[in-house]
Design a protein that fits this description.
By secondary structure, the protein is an alpha+beta fold. It has four helices and 16 strands. This is 20S proteasome subunit A/B.
């Protein structure tokens, strides 16, 4: 599992994600089945820069049929993307490439960037579901774009913190309403801070919980702005331990 967060505000879009790769499997035992989970890497790349203008984040199943599908991102770009490709074309291309090749796994993508419409750069964010062969534009309500966020993967920690929940009160359950976040007033720095906060808080919370540590490692952060090349705020680099 993973945690990928996309935050889109007036100034730009932030895409952030962790670096942990977890291997899960089930063994048959004399008493039934035993679930196993181990961390295989904390240097896994889940945030990608596409065509020097779009951001792509991946979560869900990324290791299928004994193959690391993220290793095929470069091949996907080489075969499908050129300077003329618009962001609206990419979701269907992703489903065709990763679906057919890997038998439509439970893999998800967040795609973010801008499309020039009538001379104006318009933000586009997409949520893509490979298994169900569907995608939708997540920052558009059918009439206009709006600001906000999407997070996918290991969402329990953030959901408990930021969404409406119920807590026990005697024999009843009482709703504890969430305090809304004013996305329309966020600066790009605020958006960046929120994205890092979401991933970091999930990592730190899971550290103390009695559960699989499925989010961890360095946090990669990519910022996409109109009329400019995307900026890596933080990105893992290859290095030798000497």
């Amino acid at each position: 599992m993973s945690l990928i967060i996309a935050v889109y505000v007036a100034e730009g879009i932030v895409l952030a994600g962790d670096s942990r790769l977890t291997l899960n499997w089930t063994d048959k035992t004399q008493t039934g089945e035993q679930f196993n989970s181990i961390t295989t890497s904390d240097s896994y790349s889940k945030i990608f820069l596409i065509a020097e203008k779009f951001g792509l984040g991946v979560f869900g199943e990324v290791y299928v049929n004994e193959v690391n599908i993220c290793g095929f991102i470069s091949q996907f770009v080489e075969e499908n993307i050129d300077i003329e490709t618009t962001i609206d074309e990419i979701p269907a291309l992703l489903i065709a490439f990763f679906g057919e090749k890997f038998n439509y796994p439970a893999t998800y993508f967040y795609l973010v960037g801008y499309n020039v419409e009538e001379g104006v750069s318009v933000p586009h964010t997409y949520s893509i579901n490979i298994a169900e062969k569907v995608y939708h534009r997540s920052n558009f309500d059918g009439e206009k774009t709006f600001n906000g966020t999407n997070w996918g993967g290991e969402t329990e920690v953030l959901s408990r913190l930021l969404l409406t929940v119920k807590m026990p009160s005697g024999d009843d359950w009482v709703e504890v309403a969430n305090n809304s976040i004013p996305w329309n007033f966020m600066t790009l720095q605020d958006a960046l801070d929120f994205a890092v906060y979401g991933v970091r808080t999930t990592i730190d919370t899971m550290r103390f919980q009695q559960k699989e540590k499925t989010v961890g490692g360095p946090i990669d952060v990519l910022v996409v702005k109109p009329h400019q090349e995307p900026i890596w705020i933080s990105k893992k680099e290859l290095h030798a331990l000497v």
